[in-house]
Specification:
eight-stranded parallel β-sheet; 314 residues; alpha/beta; TIM Barrel; globular
Length: 314
């Protein structure tokens, strides 16, 4: 029986570093991985939405996965997102992830002709999961990107009958009732990883203990403070840091969202992520200055990157 990873703490959804011409910059990943470990992040979920996986070809995604595997450790998990519009491509990526020794795989639903019922979604996921039968399989529920809005409780019930290595969901949706249903299902059988950074505290309140997010790349200490304060019963402190997270996310939204603005922030804090690929619009010189000024106006660099202490999730 395949065991869930039982993640406690923060999993980063890393950006894929790229050169100015759009080519993959594998050389930057070593520095990136070391920084995440220093920030007490417990693993990565690579080549997902934040990693622009759908904008890369199969060979590039394999190369990125292979590079990240160099930094795998007992306390630093590598989860490979293998989703694509073609389950046969995803099967190829799943086989590769198992061959290189990844800790787990995940896939979002197909963004082209998205299924609208649980059985159809399982039809898509089943061959992908079975292509890597020795790895835990997580479904990546992100309806804002995939437009797959199948109720996740129904999916888990149906998938449990057909996918032996199904262990849980990366739940990136604001329907917290649905998330709570999944957490409680079959006496907490499945691992439900919280996926919306700006409402992590809400996820913790209904039982999530592991989370995957993009802003953990450059402000993990903020979320460690949220988790630690929550675990200590200090809700006022937890709310304070969650509100700061919301303030940063407001800046992200103003400058094009978590991928576009997030890659630029990573460069500002010392990891050269490069630009996003089309259709992500490149930053102008003026926008870069304005983004930096907007972050300085909310004391971002003092509060996050250059904090004197970085807390470990307790």
């Amino acid at each position: 029986m395949i065991k869930k990873l039982n993640i406690k703490g923060l999993i980063s959804a890393p950006f894929t570093p790229m050169h100015s011409n759009g080519a993959i910059n594998l050389a930057e990943i070593e520095k990136y991985a070391n920084q995440l470990k220093k920030d007490n992040v417990v693993g990565v979920f690579i080549c997902g939405t934040t990693g622009e996986g759908m904008l890369m070809n199969v060979e590039e995604r394999m190369a990125v996965a292979l590079e990240w595997m160099k930094y795998k450790a007992s306390n630093f998990k590598i989860i490979v997102h293998v989703g694509s519009t073609s389950f046969s491509i995803s099967e190829t990526l799943a086989v590769h992830a198992q061959e290189i020794g990844a800790d787990a795989i995940g896939t979002m639903g197909p963004v082209f002709l998205p299924p609208n019922d649980a059985a159809s979604l399982v039809d898509y996921c089943e061959p992908i999961a079975k292509a890597a039968p020795n790895l835990p399989f997580y479904y990546y529920h992100v309806p804002s990107i995939s437009n797959v809005s199948v109720p996740m409780k129904e999916f888990l019930i149906e998938a449990d009958k057909r996918i032996p290595n199904l262990v849980g969901i990366k739940f990136t949706h604001n329907n917290l009732m649905e998330m709570q249903q999944c957490l409680a299902l079959n006496n907490e059988q499945f691992e439900i990883l919280h996926g919306y950074d700006e409402v992590l505290l809400a996820g913790l309140s209904i039982g999530a203990i592991g989370a995957v997010g993009s802003t953990y790349n450059y402000m993990a200490s903020c979320y460690s403070k949220i988790i630690n304060a929550f675990n200590q019963g200090n809700l006022e402190e937890a709310r304070k840091w969650q509100q700061y997270s919301v303030t940063v996310v407001e800046v992200l939204i103003k400058y094009g969202g978590g991928v576009r603005a997030g890659k630029e922030i990573m460069s500002l804090v010392g990891i050269n992520s490069g630009p996003g690929r089309a259709p992500i619009k490149k930053f102008s010189s003026e926008e870069k200055i304005n983004l930096k000024n907007a972050l300085e106006a909310i004391d971002f660099f003092d509060n996050i990157k250059f904090m004197n202490t970085i807390e470990t999730v307790k």
